[in-house]
Amino acid sequence: MPGALKQWPAWPEFTEGKSEPDPTGELIQYKKEIIAIYGEAAIRSSWLKVCKELEKVTDDISEKGTAAIPEVSYTELFELSPERKQVLKDTGCFVVRGVVSESLASEWFDNLKAYVADNKPNIGGWPSETPFVLRLYWSPTQLAARSHPHQLRLQRELNSWWHDSPTNPTMSPEPLSYADAVRIRPPGVPFFGLGPHVDAGSLCRWADPSYRKVYDHIFSGEPEKHDCYDLETRKDAKQAHFRGGAHSTVLRAFQGWTALTSAGKQEGSLLLYPNVKTAIAYMLLRPFFTAPASEKEIMDASKWTLDTDNGWFPGTWKQDSQRASPTSHPHLRLKECMVNIPAMRPGDGIFWHTDMLHAVETDHLGKHDSSVAYIAATPTTEANNAYMKRQAAAFMNGGKVPEDFTPGNVDHEGEFKGYVGEAGILNGEAGRRAAGIVGL
C-alpha cells in the first residue's frame, strides 16, 4: 500500500460517549426529523448501497495508495479532456504542479520568514505549545500568493466545475480571495491535532434544513444520484449554523494548500481520502445505525441496526469539524485509505473538495521547515460576497483579523514591520476585485 501510513497515529477513537452530549434530546430530534421526511426504508437502502460501494472504493484506494491522487500541471488543468476532468471530479482531489514558479514560491517563503521574525512577539499560532499554524492573514506573501494571476485563473477554473440552477443562477465562478492562515512547521515537532476530518461544519449537515437538502439523494435511498458539484442547494447551506472556530462562513468549492517549500511523506504533509461521493454519504448515514455486538460482523452492513433513539453522532461536536476514526467509521478502512499526497515542491498546489476527509501527518521527520499558504477556490455566491465585504472592511481598517478567525497576540497587522496593505495585492483590478475591495 504505497502511501498508506506504516503506523496509525494516536488519534482519538470516537466510541459512544465521545461526541456532542445530548441532555435535552436535541440530537435525537434531528435524526427523527430526517426519518420523518425520508423514511426508514430509504435510509437503510442507502446504507446498504453505500457500504457495498465502499468495498470497491476501499479496495481501489488501498491498492493504489498515493497514486490514487491525480496530478496535472498548471497548463494541463485548462486542457483536460471531459473524461480526464471527470476523473479529477470523481476523486475530489488532485495536485496541480507549478501553479507558480519554484523560484517565486521560495522568494515568498523567504519574505514570510523575515516578516514573522520581525513581528514574532505579536504573532500567535496554533497549537499553543508549539505554534506553527500562524495567525497571520495579511502578510505580503499571503496577499501575493492569493492574488497571483495563475492562482486566480486556477480558482476560476475549479469554481466552474460546480453548477448552479439553470433557470435562476446566482453563482459565478469568479474567484474570491478568502483570507486564511499560513503554516511554517519545523521538523521534529509531533502534532496530533488534525486527524481525519471534514470541514465546512459538522452537526449542521443534519441539523440545518438547507444543508440537509444538499444530501437529499443520500437520505432518499438513491446515493448513486448524489451530485457533489450541485451548487443550487449548497450555496444556501449554513456551514456556521453552530458557531465555532473550526467552521468557515464561506463555501470553499475546493480547499487548498499552496506549497512554499518542498514536503514529502513524513515531512508534516497532508493525508487525503481520495473519494468524495461515497465517503461523505457513509459519514452522513453512519449516525443512524448501531454496530452488531460481534466484532466478526462489523463489516457486514446488513448486521447493523437502524437506531433513531440514540443521540450519538460519531465524531461530531457542534463547534468542531466532522471527525472520523477506524472504530467509529469502520467501513471507510481509514488505516488503509488515508494516503499521503504526492511529494510537493515550492509552487505546487493540492486541492480537495469541501466534503473530503483529510488529515495532517503527525510527524515531520524532514530536515527543513514545511510551509504552505492556505488558499482555497472560493466561488462568488451571495453569502460568500457578503462575507467578503466584511473581510475587505477588516483588511482596509488596519489589517484586522477576518471574522472567521481568532486573533493572534494583537487583532491587527497594520502596524507590523513590513506590512504593505493594499499595495501587496497583485494582478491589478482582478486582484482587488477578488479581495473584495472594488466597490467597498
Fraction of residues in helix: 25-40%
Proportion in β-strands: 5-15%
CATH topology: Jelly Rolls
H and E string: HHEHHEHEEHHEEHHHHEEHEEEHEEEEHH
Biggest sheet: strands side by side, in what order? 1-2-13-7-15-5-4-3
Mean pLDDT: 95
Reading off the top of the CATH hierarchy, the class is best stated as Mainly Beta
- The count of strands amounts to 15
The CATH architecture would be: Sandwich
Number of domains: 1
Largest sheet data: 8 strands, mixed
End-to-end separation: 51 Å
The number of distinct helices, counting runs of at least 4 residues, comes to 15
Radius of gyration (CA) equals: 21 Å
Please characterize this protein's 3D structure.
There is one protein chain. Helix 2 (40-64) crosses helix 12 (277-285) and helix 5 (102-119) packs antiparallel against helix 6 (140-147). The chain is globular. It contains 15 helices and 15 strands. The protein has one domain (26-434): Jelly Rolls (Sandwich), CATH 2.60.120. Helix content is 32%, strand content 11%. A hairpin with a 6-residue loop joins strand 3 (125-126) and strand 4. With 440 residues, the protein is α+β, with helices and mostly antiparallel strands. The strands form four sheets. An eight-stranded mixed β-sheet has the order 1-2-13-7-15-5-4-3. Residues 1-22 are annotated as: Disordered. It comes from Lachnellula suecica. This is DUF1479-domain-containing protein.
